[in-house]
Amino acid sequence: MSEQDVAEYRKSLAIRVSGFDVPKPIKTFEETGFSPQLMNAIKKQGYEKPTSIQCQALPIVLSGRDIIGIAKTGSGKTAAFVLPMIVHIMDQPELEKEEGPIGVICAPTRELAHQIYLEAKKFSKSNGIRVSAVYGGMSKFDQLKELKAGCEIVVATPGRLIDMIKMKALTMLRATYLVLDEADRMFDLGFEPQVRSIVGQIRPDRQTLLFSATMPRKVEKLAREILTDPVRVTVGEVGMANEDITQVVHVIPSDAEKLPWLLEQLPKMIDDGDVLVFASKKATVDEIESQLAQTGFKVAALHGDKDQASRMEILQKFKSGIYHVLIATDVAARGLDIKSIKSVVNFDIARDMDMHVHRIGRTGRAGDKDGTAYTLITQKEARFAGELVNSLVAADQNVSVELMDLAMKDGRFRSKRDARKGGKVFILFYFILFYLAVKFLSGKNCFLMPI
After folding, report:
1. How many CA atoms lie within 13 A of 194 on its CB side?
2. Measured CA angle at 377 (ends 351, 386), to 5 deg
3. What is the model's pTM?
4. Which PROSITE patterns match (predicted)?
5. Of 43, 105, 227, 348, which is most buried with the most CB atoms under 10 A?
6. What is the DSSP secondary-structure string of 317-381?
7. Which domain does 431 fall in, by range?
8. Cα–Cα distance measured from residue 404 to residue 399, given in angstroms and rounded to the nearest whole number
């Protein structure tokens, strides 16, 4: 591709890059030069063509460069760092006894770590690469035993990985490929000290990949400190909702109206696929589960009070179709990658817009354009309504009259909107004055001229 072709292709994928000597994006997996075994594994998993982030990230990472990948949730970024990791490992000398890992993947929650672990195992199996998962809620002894047996890839939450290092279950001497996935969420959950500790124990000539849906100042600072001449790849707008997801917002009088609405709408949603419902409190999650179960829905609840074994069992039953509705808190549902989820319901609004983006990203995964996200918002939530309007407009989604009316009750939103209108009026007024002045100075009768 010529430079002009590359620029047009990136534009069509909504990709922006920065950095020196950035490799050209690919259009097919065949262009990567992956081994026949890896290509077969890719096809076996149903991957037909790379997603936007994969098109640009794969050639960058395969060239050995560090990368900052900023992409909306559900963009297919897991494969963008797992596939090159396998290539990297195959190029390294084999591990000796009690060596390893070579590749380290850090994720903010046990659920996301487990999802990445499963994905990595699918691609690694045919190449004889061993993958271990290390996160809380499972037996430390069993994890220590597995790590001692050796592995090329470890997928971990920061806290448990630090525990395993202290217990000398693994060594970082051979680690040369580090991935920090959903770095913004790791910082939100207070893992910055652990992340910095892990990075400090891995050799400086490593290849480092940092992926995040948003780039708050702390994450930006970390990236500058731990990456070497990285290429930054941004897909879409930072922190913007996935445009492939249809968003529907319902303004309702009070919290008491939420459950009746859900009971009425749920059968239609289930006809389209599985449903994920977010609530802000564990008690609310349990209450919704109880009410839906009594009505006959196949439903399960997921929150922090359930032990890891129970959570894994619930997720497995949800994936296998035993449950059609999953009610969850934010932390419990973090990192879920289940393609059968066609509807997300924000029973309670998210604590901020970043969390809202992450929530609705549980549907519309990896280019699936069938996902729908429903948000229930009450009259007392005008401030969030304003943020939601801005997000919907940025994602080219419809804004209802009811939502706009609610948003206008927030003084901050209203003043900004009025200021924008005032600015447009001022520009028009200034233009008219300028036009009249030019006509006057040129000696023409401006009042007889059309404006």
Report:
1. 22
2. 70
3. 0.68
4. DEAD_ATP_HELICASE, HELICASE_ATP_BIND_1, HELICASE_CTER, Q_MOTIF
5. 105
6. HHHHTS-SEEEE-HHHHTT---TTEEEEEESS--SSHHHHHHHHTTSSGGG-TT-EEEEEEETT-
7. 412-448
8. 7
